Amino acid sequence: MRRKSILITGAAGEVGQALIQQLAAQGADNLLTVDVRPLPAALNGKATHYQADILDKTIFDRLVIDYDITTIYHMAAILSTSGEFNPMAAHSVNVEGTMRLLNLAAEQSDWKREPVKFIFPSSVAVFGMQNLDNKAKHPRPQEWEWNYPITMYGCNKLYGETLGVYFAKHYKQLAETEPTMVDFRCVRYPGLISAFTVPSGGTSDYGPEMLHAAAQGQAYECFVRPDSAIPFMAMPDAITAVIQLAAAPREKLTRQIYNITAFSLSAEEIAARVQAHFPATQISYEPHLKRQRIVDSWPIDMNDDAARRDWGWKPAYDAERSFDEYLVPNIRARYAK
Ligand code: AKB
Predict the structure, then answer these.
(1) Domains in the chain: ranges and CATH
(2) Model-level pTM?
């Protein structure tokens, strides 16, 4: 008998790890995970892990023999800075990988005659604000505004969203009123900050890097200007958001793609909060031209009214609470060990 399962790709990444922790804490005992890396020991026993490349089609062919996949959280991606070092590799993982997973969802939906849920994390990187004046003039773009990404990752995420809508509304359908094949649901994340993992390969990484460096008593050289401002979110909210979106009644959702955000800070505002908790920390600024351009192209904030209205999105952690109650205490404890 095929076991009903939730499939998580990119399971060893920052969001994947936190998602497994949370789903397991809520009692999920049917988690199936895939990543090119092994899962960290802390997740032992919480999921059945397959160490494999999502571009290896045979892995999914084998999985569907044993498992009835009801929901896919497709977290695997090559992020914005890494993607600029190897755009072809980013395209393969981010586009072909997503296409492969969407196709798996469509085949499974078709076979079972019921939609498979597909949860897709997109990103603030799909926006391209064009110049700093425009960024200041349009601080809170709607989902459909300023979709002019300047990174391979941003282009890939925007196309991934479009493919998701295609599979949800048009694939093998003669009319939009026909039942959905793939129940595609997408959030656009801002920069994420976790107390338990350090990001790599992203461009919003200066926020978490600054904090993790300070907690270890290290100086930090920030790769963007002090005035650079983008939206951020603490990891627990990022996880709550996708679990909440997955659970939302389909009829409440007026769209497939939702901006979500928690708070916006400039690099110097993050530095001030970090230094308030770790006063000895030295923070300097050495902007990296390419990474600065990327951050300048992202909006200061995002309009997440639709998510709030349709499925009750509301971050539990504003900037104050993120630093004081989640980030600083947990990061202190982590490095005190
Ligand atoms: C990145 O910096 O690439 C990611 C993102 C904002 O999606 N953290």
Answers:
(1) 3-191+233-259 (3.40.50.720), 195-231+263-298+318-336 (3.90.25)
(2) 0.97
